[in-house]
């Protein structure tokens, strides 16, 4: 998709521009492995048919085959950079009167960009969010089917940090996007406790809404839930 390439190129340009602007500044870094206990609610395409689903985190855990998530943040005075990636693979099957119905879905979400400090408590940010869905379906009698697609959207948002002490942090975040998706937006609230200058415990509630449709795939899904991670700063 040309729009995907254009958005990815623009996000990379913004990312590199921010780095060059702050190249002489002192940088602070944080890397955070985390688990997002997301719930799924929406519609996807399975074997050419729209399927409505509502899966809680406990349902998804029972189907989890593999997964991982990590976030990287860098801040230098006015400018900042961020990169966040998640990969999860779910696998499930059930017996029907005519055979086994199997379903495997692999989801990737990667976002990155640049932030600019407007005030001591408020940052604006811009970048791109990339998503990929790969579904394998085994249907009785018919056999195996694969449905796969990827897309990207440019995003702009605000990050508010009303509490930032030596021990505690509290933040709110929201963004909207445009590009390959018909609509996409994210809202989140979170905070953390700093054990020392290096280690911190972080928690957040995040809601991501995506409405994407192509000739091959429909992904009109809301993902929401609590995330918890361990921050490592230097």
Determine the oligomeric state from the structure. single chain
Major sheet, described briefly? 10 strands, antiparallel, barrel
The chain-level mean pLDDT equals 83
CATH architecture: Beta Barrel
CATH secondary-structure class: Mainly Beta
Separation of the first and last Cα atoms: 38 Å
Strand order of the largest sheet: 1-3-4-5-6-7-8-9-10-11
Q: Uncertain spans, ≥5 residues at pLDDT below 50?
A: none
| Principal-axes shape call | elongated
Share of helical residues? 10-25%
The name CATH uses for the topology is Lipocalin
Could you spell the SSE succession in H and E letters? Answer: HEEHEEEEEEEEE
Number of domains: 1
**Structural class determined from secondary elements:** mainly beta
Helix and strand arrangement:
Elements: H1 2-21, E1 28-46, E2 49-55, H2 57-63, E3 64-76, E4 79-96, E5 99-117, E6 122-139, E7 143-164, E8 168-179, E9 183-194, E10 199-213, E11 218-233
Antiparallel strand pairs: 1-2, 1-3, 1-11, 3-4, 4-5, 5-6, 6-7, 7-8, 8-9, 9-10, 10-11
Describe it for me?
There is one protein chain. A ten-stranded antiparallel β-barrel has the order 1-3-4-5-6-7-8-9-10-11. It has a single domain, classed as Lipocalin (Beta Barrel). It is elongated, with a radius of gyration of 19 Å. A hairpin with a 2-residue loop joins strand 4 and strand 5 (99-117). Helices cover 12% and strands 73% of the residues. The two termini are 38 Å apart. 24% of the residues are buried. It is built from two helices and eleven strands; from the N terminus they run αββαβββββββββ. With 234 residues, the chain is mostly beta strands.
């Amino acid at each position: 998709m040309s729009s995907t390439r254009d958005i990815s190129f623009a996000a990379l340009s913004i990312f590199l521009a921010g780095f060059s602007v702050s190249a002489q500044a002192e940088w602070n870094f944080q890397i955070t492995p985390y688990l997002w206990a997301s719930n799924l609610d929406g519609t996807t395409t399975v074997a050419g048919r729209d399927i409505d689903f509502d899966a809680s985190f406990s349902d998804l855990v029972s189907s989890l085959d593999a997964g991982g998530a990590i976030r990287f943040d860098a801040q230098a005075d006015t400018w900042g950079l961020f990169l966040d990636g998640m990969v999860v693979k779910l696998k499930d099957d059930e017996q029907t009167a005519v055979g086994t119905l199997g379903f495997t879905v692999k989801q990737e979400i990667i976002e990155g960009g640049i932030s600019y400090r407007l005030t001591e408590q408020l940052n604006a940010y811009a970048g791109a969010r990339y998503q990929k869905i790969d579904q394998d379906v085994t249907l009785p009698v018919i056999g195996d089917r694969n449905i796969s697609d990827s897309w990207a959207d440019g995003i702009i948002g605000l990050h508010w940090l009303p509490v930032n002490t030596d021990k505690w942090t509290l933040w709110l975040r929201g963004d909207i996007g445009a590009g390959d998706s018909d609509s996409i937006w994210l809202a989140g609230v979170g905070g953390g406790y700093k054990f020392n200058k290096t280690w911190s415990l972080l928690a957040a509630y995040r809601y991501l809404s995506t409405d994407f449709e192509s000739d091959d795939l429909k992904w009109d899904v809301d993902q929401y839930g609590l995330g918890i991670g361990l921050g490592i700063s230097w």
